[in-house]
Amino acid sequence: MSLIPCILLGLVSYQWFTDPATTALGFGIDYEAMSNHGQNSLFRDFTAFFAASSLFCLFAFFTFKSSWLLAAGLIYLFALGFNVYHVMYLGGEVQTQLFVEVFLSVWILGTALLMRSAANSKPVVKEATADTE
After folding, report:
1. How buried is 34 (Cβ within 10 angstroms: 0-12 exposed, 13-18 middle, 19+ buried)?
2. pTM (predicted TM-score)
Protein backbone atom coordinates (compact mmCIF):
# COMPACT_ATOMS: atom_id res chain seq x y z
CA MET A 1 0.00 0.00 0.00
CA SER A 2 2.97 2.33 0.41
CA LEU A 3 3.92 1.95 -3.24
CA ILE A 4 0.80 3.74 -4.54
CA PRO A 5 1.48 7.07 -2.77
CA CYS A 6 5.15 6.64 -3.71
CA ILE A 7 4.24 6.55 -7.40
CA LEU A 8 1.67 9.36 -7.18
CA LEU A 9 3.95 11.68 -5.23
CA GLY A 10 6.89 10.78 -7.45
CA LEU A 11 4.87 11.78 -10.52
CA VAL A 12 3.98 15.13 -8.94
CA SER A 13 7.64 15.69 -8.08
CA TYR A 14 8.61 14.85 -11.66
CA GLN A 15 6.02 17.34 -12.96
CA TRP A 16 7.41 20.08 -10.70
CA PHE A 17 10.93 19.28 -11.91
CA THR A 18 10.17 19.17 -15.63
CA ASP A 19 7.39 21.77 -16.00
CA PRO A 20 7.01 23.96 -12.93
CA ALA A 21 4.89 26.64 -14.65
CA THR A 22 2.15 24.24 -15.75
CA THR A 23 2.27 22.27 -12.51
CA ALA A 24 1.97 25.47 -10.49
CA LEU A 25 -1.19 26.37 -12.41
CA GLY A 26 -2.68 23.09 -11.23
CA PHE A 27 -2.09 24.32 -7.69
CA GLY A 28 -3.67 27.68 -8.46
CA ILE A 29 -0.32 29.50 -8.60
CA ASP A 30 0.70 31.87 -11.40
CA TYR A 31 4.34 30.85 -11.70
CA GLU A 32 5.13 33.28 -14.51
CA ALA A 33 3.91 36.26 -12.45
CA MET A 34 6.40 35.50 -9.67
CA SER A 35 9.86 37.00 -9.36
CA ASN A 36 12.86 34.83 -10.17
CA HIS A 37 13.45 34.43 -6.43
CA GLY A 38 9.82 33.34 -5.91
CA GLN A 39 10.00 30.88 -8.80
CA ASN A 40 13.21 29.41 -7.41
CA SER A 41 11.72 29.05 -3.96
CA LEU A 42 8.53 27.44 -5.23
CA PHE A 43 10.41 25.12 -7.60
CA ARG A 44 12.90 23.81 -5.06
CA ASP A 45 10.49 23.58 -2.10
CA PHE A 46 7.67 21.82 -3.93
CA THR A 47 9.98 19.49 -5.83
CA ALA A 48 11.80 18.55 -2.63
CA PHE A 49 8.53 18.19 -0.70
CA PHE A 50 7.06 15.69 -3.14
CA ALA A 51 10.34 13.91 -3.94
CA ALA A 52 11.24 13.35 -0.27
CA SER A 53 7.80 12.08 0.69
CA SER A 54 7.80 9.78 -2.35
CA LEU A 55 11.22 8.39 -1.38
CA PHE A 56 10.07 7.84 2.21
CA CYS A 57 7.18 5.72 0.89
CA LEU A 58 9.59 3.83 -1.37
CA PHE A 59 11.97 3.15 1.54
CA ALA A 60 9.02 1.86 3.57
CA PHE A 61 8.05 -0.46 0.73
CA PHE A 62 11.51 -2.02 0.48
CA THR A 63 12.41 -2.11 4.19
CA PHE A 64 8.93 -2.73 5.64
CA LYS A 65 9.70 -0.16 8.34
CA SER A 66 6.71 1.92 9.36
CA SER A 67 8.93 4.79 10.55
CA TRP A 68 9.49 5.82 6.91
CA LEU A 69 5.73 6.11 6.41
CA LEU A 70 5.39 7.97 9.68
CA ALA A 71 7.84 10.57 8.35
CA ALA A 72 5.95 10.92 5.05
CA GLY A 73 2.57 11.01 6.78
CA LEU A 74 3.70 13.70 9.21
CA ILE A 75 4.74 15.91 6.31
CA TYR A 76 1.18 15.85 4.97
CA LEU A 77 -0.35 16.12 8.43
CA PHE A 78 1.68 19.28 9.06
CA ALA A 79 0.74 20.63 5.63
CA LEU A 80 -2.90 19.96 6.48
CA GLY A 81 -2.54 21.71 9.84
CA PHE A 82 -0.96 24.78 8.27
CA ASN A 83 -3.62 24.80 5.57
CA VAL A 84 -6.41 24.74 8.17
CA TYR A 85 -4.65 27.44 10.20
CA HIS A 86 -4.41 29.63 7.11
CA VAL A 87 -8.11 29.21 6.39
CA MET A 88 -9.22 29.80 9.98
CA TYR A 89 -6.88 32.59 11.11
CA LEU A 90 -5.40 34.25 8.04
CA GLY A 91 -8.50 34.51 5.89
CA GLY A 92 -7.56 31.93 3.29
CA GLU A 93 -10.09 30.01 1.24
CA VAL A 94 -10.52 26.25 1.38
CA GLN A 95 -8.54 24.78 -1.49
CA THR A 96 -8.68 21.36 -3.11
CA GLN A 97 -5.24 20.68 -1.67
CA LEU A 98 -6.78 20.53 1.81
CA PHE A 99 -8.74 17.42 0.85
CA VAL A 100 -5.71 15.89 -0.85
CA GLU A 101 -3.71 16.47 2.35
CA VAL A 102 -6.44 14.80 4.43
CA PHE A 103 -6.46 11.83 2.04
CA LEU A 104 -2.66 11.46 1.97
CA SER A 105 -2.32 11.89 5.73
CA VAL A 106 -4.94 9.24 6.47
CA TRP A 107 -3.69 6.85 3.79
CA ILE A 108 0.01 7.07 4.61
CA LEU A 109 -0.37 7.13 8.41
CA GLY A 110 -2.99 4.37 8.24
CA THR A 111 -0.62 2.26 6.16
CA ALA A 112 2.13 2.93 8.72
CA LEU A 113 -0.15 1.64 11.49
CA LEU A 114 -1.06 -1.45 9.47
CA MET A 115 2.58 -2.08 8.65
CA ARG A 116 3.60 -1.72 12.28
CA SER A 117 0.79 -4.01 13.40
CA ALA A 118 1.79 -6.63 10.82
CA ALA A 119 5.44 -6.41 11.85
CA ASN A 120 4.56 -6.87 15.52
CA SER A 121 2.28 -9.84 14.90
CA LYS A 122 4.67 -11.98 12.90
CA PRO A 123 4.56 -15.56 14.11
CA VAL A 124 7.55 -16.69 16.08
CA VAL A 125 9.19 -19.77 14.67
CA LYS A 126 10.28 -22.06 17.47
CA GLU A 127 13.29 -24.23 17.12
CA ALA A 128 12.45 -27.87 16.65
CA THR A 129 13.27 -30.00 19.65
CA ALA A 130 13.70 -33.75 19.73
CA ASP A 131 11.07 -35.67 21.63
CA THR A 132 13.06 -37.53 24.26
CA GLU A 133 10.19 -39.47 25.81
Report:
1. middle
2. 0.81
